Amino acid sequence: MKNGAVQQIHYRTCNLCEAMCGIEITLAANQIVAIRGDKDDPLSKGHICPKAVALQDIYNDPNRLKKPQRRTDAGWEEISWEEAFDEVVEKFTSIQEEYGANALGVYLGNPNVHNTGSMLYVTQLNRALGSKNRFSATSVDQLPHHLASLFMFGHQLLFPVPDIDRTDFFLVLGANPLASNGSMMTAPGMENRLKALRKRGGRFVLIDPRKTESAALADDHLFIRPGTDVLFLLAFVNVLFAEGLVKPGRLEEFTDGIDALKAAVADYTPAEVADVTGISAKQIKQLAKEFARAESAVCYGRMGVSTQAFGALCQWLIYSINILTGNLDAPGGAMFANPAIDLVKLTAGRGQRGSFAKRHSRVRNLPSNGGEFPAAAMAEEILTPGEGQIKAMLTIAGNPVLSTPNGGQLDKALESLEYMVAIDIYINETTRHANIILPPASGLENDHYDLVFHLLAVRNTAKYSPALFEPEPGCKRDWEIFRELYQRLRSRRKRKSSLGARFQEWLSWLPPHRVLDIGLRSGPHGNWDGKKFSGLSLRKLKKHPHGVDLGPLTPCLPKRLFTRSKRIELAPEIYLNDLPRVKQLLTDKSTTTEDRPLLLIGRRHVRSNNSWMHNSARLVKGKNRCTVMIHPEDAAKLKIEDQATVTVASAVGEVQLPAEVTDGIMPGVVSIPHGWGHGRKGVVQDVAAAHPGVSVNDLTDHRLIDELSGNAAVNGVPVSVSTVAAGRKKPAKAASMDA
Description:
Phosphorylase Kinase, domain 1, globular, Rossmann fold, disordered C terminus, seven-stranded mixed sheet
């Protein structure tokens, strides 16, 4: 009891990161009393991290916007929804009529994939807007995963997931699962899962330039020079062929390209790559042999290998290692989820090969993927005059000034726009440039079902979370905002409707729960026999507030393949043609360590995921986490003391922040966390402003990309570090990564 009020218990899924943790929320007098882990959730089993507890901070945040805002010379003013919608539609329409449909740019932040309403309705809004200049956080994150799934399995959402609970050997590159609870791998309670792995006699090996929180649980941790993972992986595959360890098992019956891959890796021996990577030939050979001989094994790579100059090749090689050793689509290996709402099947036409490089960006000729251009091209598309120049922007649940490369350039670009609209709950570093902000209700005021992360889960489950609170009077949920804009734009433009467009328009009139019910009933657990329905539906799911356990991951190939041949394509030409670029890395052997620039990498913390979480006092409390980690050898050479304020400079900018001298990072490497930098003028986030930090993306370079995929290379950026009093010299750009 609290003040005599009767307590109520509400069960739901936390939607703040990929882990899908089940939570138990205690209410009294319509106030949150406590948030705990739900012990009966079949996936998370009671695990919870500090982010979930902060859900109440977002709901109660005095800085959270609840009504439309318009920027004026005198500051922000509240306006009605009707006035806001009228102005937005009028401005977008007039700008596109004057300059063309592509004069409007759209950016989607990653919170969209954590939001049911956005996932169901934002595609319709994009159709109505009619612009090809679309961007998202995908291309500063996981685009190489999409590409590997697309070209090897035929669908960009068909992701192989580590079967962590049954594997005997877990090889991890560039990931920190203890901080992320899995990324592109939904696995809440990762610490318990890794301890269970070791308890049953399994091995966990981590390869990373930093001794992360996950390294403390690893059997072995090996430092690797940032940006050279591709060489390690090529040598690993080389050993598999050289030592007769290629045993794909049943996969061989439907796999093409094994001989082509063997020829492609022939020159990349462990001895050839050891000096550049920092991992000895002996260690590479031993790891490959142990992995191949384990009863079950899985290789997994994440941000450290995705967001670098060879990210696409890295993910292709990681998938290939699992295939060559027979550890794809097998218990304990990399397996495919069977979610209750199967987005892979539902998007089969749009998710296939033609979705890559269908178009190219205007300024730098970068490839599109899934209808989006790389986010690294966004600022130049705004700043470069000419036909197709972006004149207006719509940002949805994103803060690209802090989250995309060369944020300082994007900051200036947004300032130059003729018009900008943001759908967001805060006035942040990006939305402060908007003319109109349309704020949706918070997560606790929305029903929730994870449409995306069940595709990435290490176990098949399903769970529906009804809204905890009704939105305040006058507030709108995100899907209501999208639907209103969609219908007004469709009515205004009166475009000829295709069958697909008419279907989308019909869906726009349905509330989210109706669409979810259709998805569940038509999914793999729907069980419709043509006469009677006896399977999973939304009504049945509501009867299980903790969620439904649908069982472990099970083999599904070749039936689930979407390639034209219905076979795994192990050596797509797109990857083989990109391999000559890797040869440039080997020339680093003639360069001494002393001559190399320091290389910048990011880092993840369990209490941080997106920049807006820094407006929660409980998530930013404690010692300052926004520091630059530097090895004692480098610090001594540069005469830098622990906690001294230093300048970190790159080819595009510089920042000043405290140094953290630690042997937890590889010599020659420095690390700054992502998402900080709240000191810009005009931001209305009181807690964040009191803990501003600096933005690592004021140092990352929009010109440094993975040339194959267009994904941003925000890891391995050349930088210099100096004391504030000393002179500063920006390092030369790395030619091998320059686009």
